[in-house]
Amino acid sequence: MDGGISGDSSLDTFPKLLMRNARTRGDRPAMREKDLGIWQSWTWAETAAEIRRIACGLASLGVARDDKVVLVGDNRPRLYWSICAAQALGAVPVPVYQDAVADEMAFVIEHAEARVAIAEDQEQVDKLLAIRARIGLPKTIVYDDPRGMRNYTDEGLADFESVLAAGDEWNARRPNFLDTEIARGRGSDASVMLYTSGTTGQPKGVLLTFENVIRTAENAIRFDSLTETDEVLAYLPMAWVGDHIFSYAEAYVAGFCVSCPESGATVMTDLKEIGPSFFFAPPRIFENILTQVAIRMEDAGTVKRWMFRYFMGIAKSAGIAMMDGKQVSATGRLLYALGERLVYGPLKNALGLARMRVGYTAGEAIGPDIFDFYRSLGLNLKQLYGATETSVFICMQPDGQIKSDTVGVPAPEVDIKIEESGEVLVRSPGIFKSYYKNDAATASAKTADGFYRTGDAGYFDKDGHLKIIDRAKDVGRLSDGTLFAPKYIENKLKFFSYIKEAVAFGHGRDYVACFVSIDLEATGNWAERRGIAYASYQELAAKPEVLALVQQCVEQVNRDLSEDPALAGSQIRRFLVLHKELDADDGELTRTRKVRRGFIAERYGALVEGLYSGHDRAHIATTVTFEDGRKGRIEADLEIREAARATPAAHVELRKAG
């Protein structure tokens, strides 16, 4: 089949796909890693050999079928290989977020009963040792990077090289062992366990089978015509289902190459060097890239600024139409071709997106202006809608049918129905097996006829494209019965580059009010260009000029809401700008940066009441967690502002800077 898919039903696990790739495309690159500024590469044959060594080494440590193996660290080849090595033994890999604090990681390790953990470096080992001192797990900790580990003598601590050596010895004594274990694997076996973000409570362990993951990967590969010649950059958390599908599952099915950046700080440089043909990023990444472009243009010379603005105007009028196969005048095509040579091409090359053939964004809504900016450059950026429990894919946007305000049509082999309550229900080959050790949650998440309850509220537009408006449980009513969709409002606010996070309130209230957290980089750059001095986030957030800037954004959102008959009554009346960034370490966001609205409402109860009290100021004292784990306390008196509300006739667009 096309896209490197074999069509062989016996290839029903990733270790079997690995063996297929080693046989049929053994000399093609499978993985790259940038180390000390130099890209190292491994072919599929070399990858298979390394995974054999790791799997046999894990077997020597006692890892066996159905065991859970925790993996934690940045995107590293050895961690990806360890996923397949664990699967080869019939064990279940459990990636966890590398920035999780010890308490969060301890819950996963204890819940999964993981006896073995594989860690990237000293930072992760320290957390694991602290966890083991509390709960007795994991018994064995394997680490990849030896820097800083010379004097560690804790029991059950092993460096990766010693595990590989043990694997070589194991394989020499039992040469048929691993092949036999791989042959025992079945598509119905658990392939991976990924934990939900825990927005409303403790995370749940989602068990996905090989059939779930491989089938959805095959369908997505066909949908976008991916082949073994494609390349991706693996930089998103390995614990996130999106990375597991794009950087692992689809790579094994299609046979393409995955590249790991040197570090989180070098991702943009490494992106430019690799030039992936298939690229995925959440909206915040695309927003950050565009913010950097806007900042650079502000600092550019007069001629460059004029050229950029002129040709971006051409791109907006002609580029998107050309991407969608619509008719464009000869003059428009000629000017666009000139813009490609002078502006678009060099810009895409500078961003590392010159070779991008297919790009996706998901996780949150992306601002229409941001979405259109990339598509106007000729980049095939699309949106998708998915969930951990569905092996990602629920809806995808076909080429030529791209809309900025929808998430596309049902993905291949996906059935969707909308309940009377507005909740989106999904049935597909990717529906998860179960929540680990939580039969009650599994039963409540699935209907009798096999549909998964997404918890999202949405509807199909006239073209059959799905539009998500909010979490179903969060959709409420104002005191007068007006529809209130907080996430929809929050996303509209976050479309502005100056606003990083927003939290809306209104259910059961007389009007909508919200918290806003500014984006320090974008707002700071805006302030510096205007000679506004500040020494901290808190000081910048309190500047009258910044409050006025945010007020313009809020009032633009009100104008947009006024054009939707169902939501016109839920315009924002009052708002304040928070004195600190919302932070996952403070429990205000999940590790996937989803707002924990209930927690925030309780933590900042005094501010919520201030928004509804009629007062123009509110006092707050907050405990915060610093990067080194220390706790501190900050206090602030915050100004509360009134926002003008609009009627449908009052729509005036506020251009989103950056």
What keywords describe this structure?
GMP Synthetase, Chain A, domain 3, single chain, 5-stranded parallel β-sheet, 658 residues, 5-stranded mixed β-sheet, disordered N terminus, disordered C terminus
Structural class determined from secondary elements = alpha/beta
What's the total count of β strands?
28
> Overall mean pLDDT score?
92
Percentage of helical residues? Answer: 25-40%
CATH class of the largest domain: Alpha Beta
The CATH architecture of the largest domain: 3-Layer(aba) Sandwich
Q: What is the overall silhouette? A: globular
- The domain count comes to 3
Low-confidence stretches: 1-5, 649-658
Task: Write up this protein.
The protein folds into 3 domains: 2-276, ANL, N-terminal domain (Rossmann fold, 3-Layer(aba) Sandwich), CATH 3.40.50.12780; 283-438 and 465-470, no CATH class; 475-650, GMP Synthetase, Chain A, domain 3 (2-Layer Sandwich). The protein is built from 21 helices and 28 strands. The model is unreliable at 1-5 and 649-658 (pLDDT under 50). The protein is an alpha/beta fold and 658 residues long. Helix 1 (14-24) packs antiparallel against helix 2 (44-60), helix 1 (14-24) crosses helix 3 and helix 8 packs across helix 9 (241-254). Strand 10 (231-233), helix 9 (241-254) and strand 11 (257-260) form a beta-alpha-beta unit. The two termini are 43 Å apart. The chain has a 5-stranded parallel beta sheet, with helices on both faces.
